[in-house]
């Protein structure tokens, strides 16, 4: 019997990623948490009584979530407390779209259970930036680059992935001009190396993308991205994400073109 097993009580800082009806009164809710990664919980009687969870079962809130686990059954949500609201996001459709994108991304890049403090901090910084009114593509590209790096996807910008010519030498070598980013290489190719595939990147864009791999929220906040470099990164980072995930990103509509100002 489920009740015979030992029950354990857990709590974590969390963002609601998605929720869906489960039967007439319950909801199945999925959170991205700092200490446990992606967690799916049963929210009992979530419909019957909004008081039960204080109306806090919403996205764009930093929550403190408590739940109980018992062997052989789905963990049960016990309580939620609001730590910080980013409700300003819902005032603007572009902010909503990009916030949903970051939530989907964190869940997709980090599906394994276990502590995810770095990814969580990047997500929190991105959501906070969106709520504060920063132009949505800026926190989006920053968070994407940082999350990719935390997840181990790089890319590696130290040298040409084929011939090993250091990135610093590519710009000065006469034949090395024209760095191309190639998703399947996880990095850039120099002009000497064959293959017409890939997207041309300026050295400035490569340097900016490298800086964003630091993934510290403090560094991310300080990195300035010019409009020109933002446009370049717009063309490669979401595409690389889709390559890494092996599927299109639903939350951005699968089209980077719609993001151009
Ligand atoms: Zn090369």
CATH class of the domain at 1-85: Mainly Beta
User: Average pLDDT value?
Assistant: 87
The helix tally amounts to 7
Q: State which percent range the strand residues make up.
A: 15-25%
- Overall form: elongated
CATH architectural name of the domain at 1-85: Beta Barrel
Q: What is the helix fraction of residues, given as a range?
A: 25-40%
- Reported by name, the CATH topology of the domain at 1-85 is OB fold (Dihydrolipoamide Acetyltransferase, E2P)
Order of helices and strands: EEEEEHHHHEEEHHH
Described by its quaternary structure, the protein is: single chain
CATH level 4 superfamily of the domain at 1-85: Nucleic acid-binding proteins
- Structural class computed from helices and strand pairing: alpha+beta
What can you tell me about this protein's structure?
The protein contains 7 helices and 8 strands; from the N terminus they run E-E-E-E-E-H-H-H-H-E-E-E-H-H-H. The C terminus is likely disordered. It starts with 7 loop residues before the first strand and ends in a 16-residue tail after the last helix. The radius of gyration is 21 Å and the shape is elongated. It is an alpha+beta fold and 261 residues long. 33% of the residues lie in helices and 23% in strands. Helix 1 runs antiparallel to helix 2, helix 1 packs parallel to helix 3 and helix 3 crosses helix 7. The longest helix is centred in the C-terminal third of the chain and has 19 residues. The chain has a 5-stranded antiparallel β-sheet with strand order 3-2-1-4-5. Strands 7-6-8 form a 3-stranded antiparallel β-sheet. It has a domain of 85 residues: Nucleic acid-binding proteins (OB fold (Dihydrolipoamide Acetyltransferase, E2P)). Bound molecules: zinc ion.
